[in-house]
Amino acid sequence: MPSIPTVASQPLPARMSTSVLLADGVSRLEATLKLTTAILALAAGVYTYLGVRELLNGSATTVFFAAVIYSVAVSVGIYAFWVFLMHFMPHVVSATGRGLMFGCMLLGALMIVAMSSWLNASALAGAAAIQQHLAITVQDYTRDLDAANTNAIAAQGLLPDIQLASSRFARLADAERTGSLTGTSGSGTVVQLLTQMSGQLDSLGQQVQDSAKRVSTLYEQGGKSLAKMRELISDRGPIAARSDAFATESLALMGVIANLQQTSVAPAVKRAATSLASGFIPPAAGGRTADLADRQTAVVGKVEGSIATQAASLADAADKILAMPRVEPARFQTLSSAEAVLRYAGDFIPSWAGAISIDLMPAVLVLILCVVHAAIRREGLPAISASTMTVGELVAALQIAREVEEARRAAEPLAEPTPAAEPVPAAEPPAAATTDQLPPAATEENVTSLSSARHIK
Asked: How far, rounded to the nearest angstrom, does the alpha carbon of residue 242 sit from its chain's CA centroid?
């Protein structure tokens, strides 16, 4: 009889060989998948530890153990979650089941981002985010200092007008001494009035000049504080210590800005202008004759009108300065690394991408396994092959095959009809037996009866 060819001697079909290769690849890479997932979970746990350590308060020992416990829990949770998906998700073939598995994966990914990824981002970019916060605060303080200085020195623009008015009154006084205004030389009532107005304006101008020196000194002090803040930003020391020093400098700078707003001389100019106009009391004419007294009274009236005009001009200019918005310096708010990363997330997108990728990279491996197992099922590979079966699986398979065979044999008598019983001939001696009374075995095709042989002859 020809021998039955074994399966090994027959070449595998192309589809079957591809599925076998895919299955072998999955088997070989199983350890690599677990190792990769474990390393990614460990990396996530380390960065989670660095991030959560900045959020905890208490003694160093308490903070250390609390951060370690949290990071270990995160690592174990991430590893178990992705390993569960790698083992179960590729084998769920129904649309409903696959949709539920994808929903579970999405929910788990969101939970991982919530408990780990933002802490990873804090560890990766926390110091840079705090530096960004400090830099933005310096810009705000620089703007506030410049605005306060502008408001404070705005009154300096009134100084030329005050000096011009003072010099004009002084020149009129000198002219009156020669009799240019009243026609009579001397230092009478008009000269004294003009000299008095010139002195008042000179005193106001001196106040404005002194204010300018005070404003310049305060502005230089504020500039030194800003320079110290910039040095703290560019320094390489621990960010927490630099942030504390920055807060100290910010308090000093806020005091400088407040002093600048109080140093403005515009309110004093406003009061002086109002006093010149409303508090003017015309002196009595002191002329020796009635004609000279009348002329002095007329000149004093003109001087009063000129003073009112000058006072109104100064008051309007002072009102414009006082109408400028008051500067409200921003208060520096100390932020932790996590808070800074969340507030300035848009400036650290690469760090966020890296932090999330560490946690969600196994999702790509899960999807690859789903695609590979779908290809294996599509190409018809048996669920279990003889080359990958263990001894226990082989014994179980043989037992199942034996039970199936016994069930088949037990079912055969019920499926086939039983032949009718034939009468059994009486036993006779072998010598007296005829060819017609031979048992059925003697009539097989390989046995020829004697009567048939004679007929052939």
From this structure: 22
Closest CA to 301 of 279, 314, 315, 284: 284
| Euclidean distance between CA atoms 448 and 436, whole angstroms | 12
Secondary structure tally for the chain: helices H, strands E: 14, 0
3-state secondary structure at position 416: coil
**C-alpha to C-alpha distance for 99 and 105, rounded to whole angstroms:** 10
Q: In which residue are the tokens 């590729």 written? A: 90
Q: Encode the chain (457 residues) as per-residue pLDDT tens digits.
A: 333 333 333 444 444 567 778 888 888 888 898 999 999 999 999 999 988 888 888 888 988 999 999 999 999 999 999 999 999 998 888 889 889 999 999 999 999 999 888 888 888 888 888 888 998 999 988 888 888 888 887 777 777 777 777 777 777 777 666 665 555 555 566 667 777 777 777 777 787 777 888 888 888 898 898 999 999 888 887 888 888 889 888 888 888 888 888 777 777 777 777 766 655 545 545 555 565 666 666 666 677 677 777 777 777 777 777 777 777 877 888 888 888 888 888 888 888 888 899 999 999 999 999 998 888 887 765 545 566 667 777 788 788 888 888 888 888 776 555 554 445 454 444 444 444 444 444 444 444 444 443 444 4
**Neighbour count for residue 405 (Cβ, 10 Å):** 10
Quick one: DSSP state of residue 114?
I
